[in-house]
Amino acid sequence: MSSQPPKEAVGITAKKSDDFSEWYTQVVMKAGLADYAPVKGFIVLRPYGYAVWESIRDILDRRFKETGHQNGFLPVLIPEGLLSKEEDHFAGFTPEVFWVTQAGNNDLGERLALRPTSETLAYSIFAKWITSYRDLPLKINFWNTALRAEIKATKPFIRTSEFLWQEGHTVHATEDDAEQEVMSILSIYRELIEDHLAVPAVRGFKSDKEKFVGAKYTTTLEGMMADGKALQMGTSHHLAQNFSKPFEIKYLGKDTKEHLAWQTSWGVSWRLIGAIIMVHGDDKGLILPPKIAPIQVVIVPIHKDKDAQAVKEKANEIAQELKNAGIRVHVDDRDEYTSGWKFNEWELKGVPLRINIGARDIEKGQVEFARRDIRDNKIQSPRTSLVDKTNELLEEVQKSLFSKAKALLDGYISSPASYPEFRSIIEGKGGFARAGWCGDQKCELAVKEETGADIRVIPFDQDGMPEKCIYCGQAAKKVAMFGRAY
């Protein structure tokens, strides 16, 4: 049998440090995460990529249900009249909306929007469901897709015209309850992003310019990618009564008086997969954090023909023991590929841990581990401590990935003392420029126009605020993290 890999399985040919964009695209395609669809701006999620999304989804779904949220389903079409009911919200999304104007050969009397987000649709329904304080809080999450016309600059997982996400929508009796919900969800997102995806993020508020259209305020988690660009990882919005007023979401309180409800919305998308690739990947391909890797351990039997059956049996025995311990494992016992080619393939796919097993290992009563995240990564361990050693190494990989990502983030945070230095940082190495801001949107817009940098986040931690605004020199009111972003 031929030991040559199929054409599409050739490894990564671009270096991460030389051509980040090409490297990223190659990892997405060659690791089998996604492929391009026939329509520009859309991608096809392949089974391996979907398995990564399922890992993320399962973690969040469990946490949402633990905190009293239920899942629901919404249709994809929204009547134009409904979408325009909250004018500021509608205006913010109009440039990105796909419109349906025909049903078969018949013109529709009213245009239908393909859902860019579901606030208007959900809230027209919520108004029918909520009549009394006994109906509150209403806490619903939707696992669905959103469609937004990304025509100019597309990037798999990061900017696509249709994307998988979850969007939560809640209704509360008081503003205090709504604000607690906003922060509770942000905490769940932080737990997912930092503890499971091993990507550190800066928590804080969006500026009024950058907040969700229609929100009173938006909280965010901003990550830093390996090329010095920021990525919005997740947002949680306090909508106040900005939607309950136009949609008349009211309830009869215990005081027998009618009150307007308070609302929140929040979401993360599959761009989290893009963040994992950008932050953790290397020139060999993907590196997946163990906690979300569909396959945590791959076992590669190494044998000559005479040893084949015995080695494969031992590999499957090891796999079963690991499965019984709750570890996600796969045995690559294909005969048509060499062990070296298999090593390269699983490194490309980012499996955190590999076990090599051969006749000599069986004789010695040992297994050989290889960590994906480090060089010189061969580790021998007694067969009797298989499960304990596997769990130990998986934990080490998880911690190591976070540590490296934290060093990356810290290295990309600068504190310029002047506007020329600020510009030099933004236009040079990139990253976050931590600077004073007077709070005037004119300065924010001027910085954007002159440097391409937005206020990515106004950190919750406002310690060490500079005295002056980095742009105008007036008294600073806030510390802001500026940066260019995806």
TrEMBL record:
Identify the domain of life.
Answer: Archaea
- The yes or no answer to whether the keyword Transmembrane is present is no
Q: Name one GO biological process term.
A: prolyl-tRNA aminoacylation
A GO MF annotation of the entry reads: ATP binding
On whether Aminoacyl-tRNA synthetase is a keyword of this UniProt record, the answer is yes
Q: Which reaction does it catalyse?
A: tRNA(Pro) + L-proline + ATP = L-prolyl-tRNA(Pro) + AMP + diphosphate
- The EC number on file is 6.1.1.15
Q: Which residues form the Aminoacyl-transfer RNA synthetases class-II family profile domain?
A: 41-289
The record's subcellular location field reads: Cytoplasm
Question: Record's GO cellular component, any one?
Answer: cytoplasm
**Which keywords belong to this entry?**
Aminoacyl-tRNA synthetase, ATP-binding, Cytoplasm, Ligase, Nucleotide-binding, Protein biosynthesis
**Pfam families cross-referenced by the UniProt entry:** HGTP_anticodon, ProRS-C_1, tRNA-synt_2b
- What InterPro entries does this protein's entry cite? aa-tRNA-synt_IIb, aa-tRNA-synth_II, aa-tRNA-synth_II/BPL/LPL, Anticodon-bd, Anticodon-bd_dom_sf, Pro-tRNA-ligase_IIa, Pro-tRNA-ligase_IIa_arc-type, Pro-tRNA_ligase_II_C
Predominant location category: cytoplasm
Q: Where are the membrane-spanning stretches?
A: none
Q: Which family does it belong to?
A: Belongs to the class-II aminoacyl-tRNA synthetase family. ProS type 3 subfamily.
Q: How does it assemble?
A: Homodimer.
The job of this chain, per UniProt, is described as: Catalyzes the attachment of proline to tRNA(Pro) in a two-step reaction: proline is first activated by ATP to form Pro-AMP and then transferred to the acceptor end of tRNA(Pro).
Recorded domain comment? Consists of three domains: the N-terminal catalytic domain, the anticodon-binding domain and the C-terminal extension.
Q: What is the protein name for this chain?
A: Proline--tRNA ligase
**What species was this sequence derived from?**
Candidatus Nitrososphaera evergladensis SR1
